[in-house]
Amino acid sequence: MIKKSQLERIISEDLSDMWNALRPDEKRIVIDNFKYEHYKKNQIIYAEKETPESLFCLLEGKVKMYKSGIGDRIQILRLYRPVQYFGYRAYFANEPYVSSAAAFEPTVLGIIPMNIVEQLIRNNNDLAMFFIHELSRNLGGADTKIINLTQKHIRGRLAESLLLLADNYGYEDDESTLKIYMSREDLANLSNMTTSNAIRTLTTFVSEKLILVDGRRIKIINEPQLRKISKFG
């Protein structure tokens, strides 16, 4: 059981950007309503059509937001890394979730009820601006992703996905191996292509000495060329 003094320190460190917008009495409300949840690899955090009730903050691990399309084909819409917030857009839109979220690996989430968040926002303009900023950034990112997924060729889309993984999660100690191990199916779902196309394009990138592949481990050995392929599609 975590003591309140420990919880306050953890929240102030992990939720620092949101925390800094709160007044002392509001910080106490967050602490009193904050809880941790542990999720196993591939465990669903929330599912499409469920009613949104919580603000999630990713503290440890990796999370994907995805949506099922025609023929139950999956499209990964967004990847989250510590410390990012998610799960609140549908609540503000007063609608059920239109996508799902799941853990890529063992994950720890901080959770605050959205009715508490709404109460705080209504009385704190700085907190309201924080969420406006977050929503605006996500909308801009979504607009860019739509263009990239619809206008880039397969090579450009896969190169972009590999670079996104590098930018989001970084590298192992060798400074070249991606710090996330994705299945070929997940990589295809992120890049809007079939799994077979993802496998073929990865093989091509290996033959061109852009990357090295060992199971789910991908080592980027020519990042400038990958960025060129991503840019020009």
Short structural summary:
Helix content is 48%, strand content 21%.
Attribute tags:
233 residues, alpha+beta, 4-stranded antiparallel beta sheet, 10 strands, 21% strand, elongated
Question: How would you describe what is shown here?
Answer:
This protein has a four-stranded antiparallel beta sheet with strand order 1-8-3-6. A four-stranded antiparallel beta sheet has the order 2-7-4-5. A two-stranded antiparallel ribbon has the order 9-10. It is built from ten helices and ten strands. The chain is elongated, with a radius of gyration of 19 Å. The protein is of the alpha+beta class and 233 residues long. 48% of the residues lie in helices and 21% in strands.
Radius of gyration: 19 Å
- Could you describe the largest sheet, including whether it forms a barrel? 4 strands, antiparallel
Q: Tally of extended strands?
A: 10
Stretches where pLDDT is under 50 for at least 5 consecutive residues are none
Q: What's the helix-strand series?
A: HHHEEEEEEHEEHHHHHEEH
Shape: elongated
Mean pLDDT: 88
The count of helical stretches stands at 10
What class do helices, strands and sheet pairing give?
alpha+beta
SS strand fraction: 15-25%
Helical residue percent? 40-55%
Distance between the termini: 51 Å
* Strand line-up of the largest beta sheet: 1-8-3-6
Task: Please render the helix and strand layout as text.
Blueprint: H1 4-14, H2 16-19, H3 24-33, E1 35-39, E2 44-46, E3 54-60, E4 63-68, E5 74-80, E6 85-86, H4 89-92, E7 100-103, E8 107-113, H5 114-122, H6 125-151, H7 154-169, H8 184-191, H9 195-207, E9 211-214, E10 217-220, H10 223-232
Antiparallel strand pairs: 1-8, 2-7, 3-6, 3-8, 4-5, 4-7, 9-10
Helix pairs in contact: 7-8, 7-10, 8-9
